Request: fold
Amino acid sequence: MTQSYDPKSFEASWQAHWLEHKTFRAHGPGDTDFDASKSKYYVLDMFPYPSGAGLHVGHPIGYIGTDIIARKKRMQGFNVLHPMGYDAFGLPAEQYAIQTGKHPSVTTENNIATFRAQMQNIGLSYDWDREFATCTPDYYRWTQWIFARLYDRGLAYQTEVPVWWCENLKTVLSNEEVINGRSERGDHLCIRRPLRQWMLKITAYADRLIEDLELVDWPASVKTMQTEWIGRSEGAEIDFQVAGHDAKIRVFTTRPDTLYGATFMVLAPEHPLVDQITSQEQREEVKTYREAAASKSELDRTDLAKGKTGVSTGAFGLNPLLDPLDPAARIAIHVADYVLMGYGTGAIMCVPAHDERDHEYALRFDLPILPVVAPRDGAQPEGCWGGEGLAINSPLWDGLATTEAKQKAIQELQQRSLGQPKVTYRLRDWLFSRQRYWGEPFPVLHCEDGTHKRVADEDLPVELPDMDDFAPSEDGRPPLSKVPSWVEVTDPVTGEKYLRDTDTMPGWAGSCWYYLRFMDPHNSDAFASKEALDYWGNVDLYVGGTEHAVLHLLYARFWHKVLFDEGLVPTAEPFQRLFNQGMLQAFAYKDPGGRLVSSDEVTVDGSEARLTADGTPLEQVVAKMSKSLKNVVNPDAVCAEYGVDTFRLYEMFMGPLAESKPWNPRDVPGARRFLERLWRLFVDQEGDSPIREDLLQASEGELVGEALEIERAWNPCLVRINDSFENFNFNTAVAALMEWLNTATKNRAGFRRDQAQRVVCALAPFAPHLAEELWQRLGHKAGTVSFAPWPDVDERYLGSDTFELAVQVMGKLRGRIDAPRSASKDDLEALARQAVADRLEGSTVRKVIVVPGRLVNFVVS
RNA sequence: GCGGGAUUGGCGGAAUUGGUAGACGCGCGAGGUUUAGGUCCUCGUGGGCAUUGCCUGUGGGGGUUCGAGUCCCCCAUCCCGCACCA
Reply:
């Protein structure tokens, strides 16, 4: 009888064992088995939107990473919270419903079942008792409840705003969901259109959202992106009188110190004053320009390559610090679309000497250019110069440095009531409503008098009505408005009539607080108990892709801060450490014309790739996995062919978790071979015993001979495994295990039980099924290795008594000798001198560098 | 245009943070076990020249240093953000 490594024979049963025994159940406050003395560790994956396509091998790469971390933390004695759920409201299920008539709740449920099965098949150690989907009333009741808190704080309001409207999707989208005038989902054209919408006042938190980035351990790039997205800029608002009109134009500028250099002004085409101030002669031209600007797509308008356009209004503004009769005070007012209505005041003062955009415009329209800042070194800058220097041509602050000049300018303007300091943000308030069905209804009732009030907390949730026609109306009215029985509400006590709000919340709502629900997912009295919130605190480690660097992470931080202000959560920030995993790519093939070829048309022979049809040579490149290239790999198929542990190990062995790297099917068997060789170290394939008989003997006595060799290889290996948890470069941990196995295999006969047990423990996070199997075969009949103690490094066995000393002459390697670790610097130098004696002959040694444990370098002449 | 990250064998990637470049795996080559193929085992494998050995080599160029993949300056290519934000 042979017993070869056969993962199929035990992987599924260990998965069943974990589920059945609730091995990974996290016990929190209120649970009978809760042990408050244990330190908590909360490690969370960004939860997925359960799409119909299921998982591909790219999804689980982060999940496997966090699983390894969670498993190790458990073995280190932490109470680990490691949950999974589904971000289940959203457009795709609804679009699918419109096409097929299948209710989104049905397709969502089916998709969730697929995702769950796939994740359980990978052996991820989630606490499945905490699983939930954001689209269930139990959950969105609390999403609505949190919305009510925002509503009560005045952070949710309705207003008529120009919003992005997507005709294809029949809904408005937030700024963040529109890229260059097209929808992020589906890439449909979007237009600006004024509509009454729910807004969340995220701008009220802008400063704290910037400042509190200091409290978290996040990648610098993500912090930068968020900071830039919020886009805080300090400056001043200044009022310019319009000559001959009873009108003032308020501008925002970050450079009030350049006020004397303002030689013209520009209004955005949508600016409300344009009509009022435009002169008779210019009226027609301005009208044409504004119409053109309105019909231009955002893409055209923001296309920098096209150069600046604009027209004069024929009106003039007056520099507030100059005598109105001074000809220099009179500056032309233009309309140009390089000024955006949505930022600042929609009007600017233009200083072409010190602003590139104004400079370009001035040259084009032959407007005057007056320098008001000079470089400190006295140089004469050519063209436009945006740097800081000393003020010139500025009577009230001539000679002041830019920073002081700004302050002085603001002070002078304030004294004259002509302006004041102002902070402006690029961040806009969050457009929070969608004209869709598959989302959280707003818990808001509209009264007959036009006011609105929120639904009482005890009446939550406001459940979605059951419908079967989800198509939006042609006029853009939301699907929910088609259910009068749901919309019309009569107060049972007062008899007053109300209409329900028929918008729904955007897909981001549910994911703003799900990490809190995981702490206490079945609580029906609160979104989570105070005890659970206090114990679990915030997320220690949050892992996901960079695509959420701004939107999700900014929204969630905003909601969290509101809850913090309500005294409902104990921390200011939700995610203490953030880690972005890299994207999993795939090989693709390019034909000589540079076209990517679908992988089913390619024949690969060794390192040569050719077009199957006619043998055209192809170039191998790395690209995203995509359906069109047919290079998507399904994890189920990989697990079925090689086993789950092989799949997990390969995903980690590919490279550091943070890096993007290509899936290479050719490399997968290498991971499998490693597990087979490991198996053979433990199990005598020709025998009947579940494990080598000698591994059942208690280990006794000094470590000598082969056992000592194994031990000396093991401890450095364990150091490398431990180190790999710093930056999640588990590839080095797997490599260390492989190296150890090479040594251990050579010294197979000396392998001892105590060593075997430590190896199985260290292996457990990476290849948990194999580890459980070997642990049981080692005689741990009832238990699981999941809570066995993580092994310690034994410093005594970290190195051998000798090391390889590199001997260099003039920095070039000239010899390698074995040297005792205990040797002094002088001993090492003597040994090295001996080793390269022939090379030193005839030259003078001017200097000797000795690095103990490494090398000796002779500098000669 | 601005900001960030990268660039190491045929491929994925290591490198104790300034100290023996290419660990580990894949692929490839040679040999062994096997009736044969596969599996498995052993050895080799950056490039060049060569009898031992030598030269060269981390995208390109320059610099600091006894010593540079690692630090500094310049350049190229690729990827990711942002992109008229006043």
Residues 8 and 643 of chain A are 7 Å apart (CA to CA). Chain A has a mean pLDDT of 90. The radius of gyration of chain A is 34 Å. Residues 585-629 of chain A form a domain with the Rubrerythrin, domain 2 fold (CATH 2.20.28).
